[in-house]
Amino acid sequence: MIQSMTGFGKAVTELPNRKITVEIKSLNSKQLDLSTRIPAIYREKEMDIRAEVGRRLERGKIDFNIYVESLGRETSTQINQPIIENYYNQIKDVSKNIGIPLPSDWFQVLLRLPDAIKTEITELEEEETEALMQTVNRALDQLQEFRIQEGEMLQRLFNEKITNIATLLQETNVFELERIDKIKSRINDALSKIENFDYDKNRFEQEMIFYIEKLDVNEEKHRLDNHLKYFIETMENGKGQGKKLGFISQEIGREINTLGSKSNHAELQKIVVRMKDELEQIKEQVLNVM
């Protein structure tokens, strides 16, 4: 079963003095692209967290966030009064010099400025460290469940589209003999319209055979059929097949394009266009596969 790179996971843990919330969002990417937002109090565990996220998620554009909320009266977060005073005086000076009005809500402005809030970093206790990593892993579990569900939807879509292309490939057989006969007839009609034209019939037959062989699409149809089967086989091998499925879809497209360029038949051209439409939907979604 394939997995999608798209997913979301969230986990919450309440300690006696803190509430820890971990949120992880994942989108498609060619490799692991991890962006983290970790509070200063947990910064010492950042490398462990990044290693765990990378080990379990493998690929994707990952947005990882930890939020901490104090539950007790005592808090390590304090307002940095000297910095606030300095900002306050600077803003008043700017207002006077430039002639712009002072803010109506000072606290809303001042508390958002850099270093207005200071956090006292204390050493993490083992119990809190363990709770943090458990919360991270629960969020990762939820995200992976999301990826599996999305992967099931993608697999159903791919099965449908590959089946549609295989059915269209079988439809080409109806027009194959008719296509060759029309080509022969068109060439003979053109020759018959030329007055006083004599030609070596044996040489003509040889050239006709050579020309028909160049227009033969049986080899392309056989390769296309093999690529379709290989796509399904690869998809059923499990996760981590996204790049391989992308390569196979490119090969499928190459055979469809060759089939279209050699078909020289209106109905076959229509079938090729429908094949390309089905394949385009595969290519769009295969980018999301792990």
Characterization of the model:
By secondary structure, this protein is of the alpha+beta class. The protein folds into three domains: 7-75 and 124-148, Ribosomal Protein S5, domain 2 (2-Layer Sandwich), CATH 3.30.230; 77-110, no CATH class; 151-286, no CATH class. It is built from eight helices and six strands. It has helices at residues 46-57, 81-98, 106-110, 126-192, 201-215, 218-235, 242-263, 266-286; strands spanning 7-14, 18-27, 32-37, 60-70, 77-79, 117-119. Strands 1-2-4-3 form a four-stranded mixed beta sheet. Helix 1 links the parallel strand 3 (32-37) and strand 4. Helix 4 runs antiparallel to helix 6 (218-235), helix 4 runs antiparallel to helix 8 (266-286) and helix 6 runs antiparallel to helix 7 (242-263). The longest helix has 67 residues, at 126-192. The protein is elongated, with a radius of gyration of 33 Å. The termini are close together. The model has no long low-confidence stretch (mean pLDDT 85). GO terms for molecular function: hydrolase activity; RNA endonuclease activity. Keywords: Endonuclease, Hydrolase, Nuclease. Its cofactor is a divalent metal cation.
